[in-house]
Backbone:
């Protein structure tokens, strides 16, 4: 088996791919990890310590089964296709969602299989959910359960809130609901980016001091990590298909564009203990889910192949499905990798503030005054210029 990963220690999706590879290796399945977007190479020491035993190499065997994520480089995919007997696309996000970062949607070929990480990515394909382990969160929560599990006060009654914003892979597509605008106005705010805080300890320390999180990214694990720490989370992004009730772990602490639900969270709090217990159950289910996945691999490897026409129809239908899903969720794209919104812009919800409008108006008036002044004095300046030229001519 050959899972593909890229060079990103901050990505929980890549850690999921490595967990799959480690499970395969521990199950006596010959496993290679193919590094994509890793020029010139990726060494075992550049991943977390528990993955150091994995064979990370571009030298993969003929006739292997390749597990390709949605963030693979096309040239690497084409090379792996020449080696692998079976291709399985494993989408942890919508394929093509990172096209702004030169990771386009790669059309499927006949006979290639599809699985997804969770029902948020798709509800029609087979799912393989692997819950990442958050060691630091477990230390915090289990070290101070009374603090994290206690019922929080009604945040709607608090005069000055501590609010954190996270852009991630999202972008602003319209103003915040009026309730959020009102709460933000009299609050202390912080901004989380991919570079700040610089460590998980720093991230969790910052989140622990907040009353709630506003996120522009519906797919980030930061939303879930914040909810595990007891924060209500409002995700300011729509999604084309409901998935919360089918998700393998509880998303009770996260509101996806539902301001009424979020109001209830702020008023009555969230059941952090239930969310945390669901997370622990998710970890317990990892081995079971992975065993089922590898059993499925054996079945598809030994099953009879469909006819070429049938395979072409399936691959065409899958391509059409993904492109349609991508259009439906076009408001969500990895803007932070190209453009980072500043805190004031995110805090305002991307709206024109009176202060900013006044400043721009003054600049516009000054510019127009300069233009008018130049027009008024143009004849005088022109005549003086010509007279000077004439004098110089006479003197010469």
Residues:
């Amino acid at each position: 088996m050959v899972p593909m990963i890229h060079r990103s220690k901050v990505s929980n999706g890549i850690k999921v791919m490595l967990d799959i590879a480690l499970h395969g290796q521990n199950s006596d399945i010959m496993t290679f990890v193919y590094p994509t977007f890793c020029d010139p190479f990726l060494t075992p020491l550049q991943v977390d310590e528990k993955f150091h035993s994995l064979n990370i190499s571009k030298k993969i065997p003929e006739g292997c089964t390749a597990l390709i994520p949605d963030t693979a480089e096309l040239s690497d995919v084409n090379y792996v296709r020449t080696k692998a007997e079976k291709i399985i696309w494993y989408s942890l996000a919508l394929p093509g969602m990172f096209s702004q970062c030169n990771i386009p949607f790669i059309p499927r070929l006949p006979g290639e299989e599809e699985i997804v990480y969770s029902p948020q990515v798709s509800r029609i394909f087979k799912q393989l959910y692997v819950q990442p382990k958050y060691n630091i969160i477990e230390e915090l929560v289990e070290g101070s359960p009374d603090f994290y599990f206690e019922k929080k006060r009604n945040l709607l009654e608090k005069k000055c809130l501590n609010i954190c914003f996270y852009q991630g892979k999202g972008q602003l597509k319209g103003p915040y609901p009026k309730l959020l605008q009102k709460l933000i106005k009299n609050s202390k705010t912080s901004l989380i980016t991919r570079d700040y805080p610089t460590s998980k300890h720093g991230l969790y320390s910052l989140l622990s001091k907040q009353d709630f999180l506003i996120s522009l990214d519906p797919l980030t694990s930061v939303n879930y990590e914040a909810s595990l720490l007891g924060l209500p989370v409002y995700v300011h992004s729509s999604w084309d298909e409901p998935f919360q009730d089918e998700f393998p772990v509880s998303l009770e602490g996260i509101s996806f564009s539902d301001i009424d639900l979020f109001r209830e969270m702020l008023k009555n709090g969230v059941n952090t203990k239930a969310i945390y217990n669901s997370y622990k159950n998710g970890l317990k289910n990892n081995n079971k889910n992975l065993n089922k996945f590898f059993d499925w691999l054996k079945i598809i490897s030994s099953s009879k192949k469909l006819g070429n026409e049938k395979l072409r129809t399936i691959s065409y239908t899958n391509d059409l499905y993904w492109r349609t899903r991508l259009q439906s969720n076009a408001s969500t794209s990895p803007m932070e990798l190209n453009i980072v919104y500043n805190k004031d812009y995110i805090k305002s919800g991307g709206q024109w503030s009176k202060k900013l409008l006044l400043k721009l108006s003054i600049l516009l008036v000054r510019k127009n005054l300069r233009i008018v002044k130049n027009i008024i004095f143009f004849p005088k300046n022109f005549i003086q210029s010509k007279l000077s030229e004439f004098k110089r001519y006479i003197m010469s």
About this structure: The chain has 13 helices and eleven strands. The longest strand covers residues 84-91. The chain has a mean pLDDT of 85.
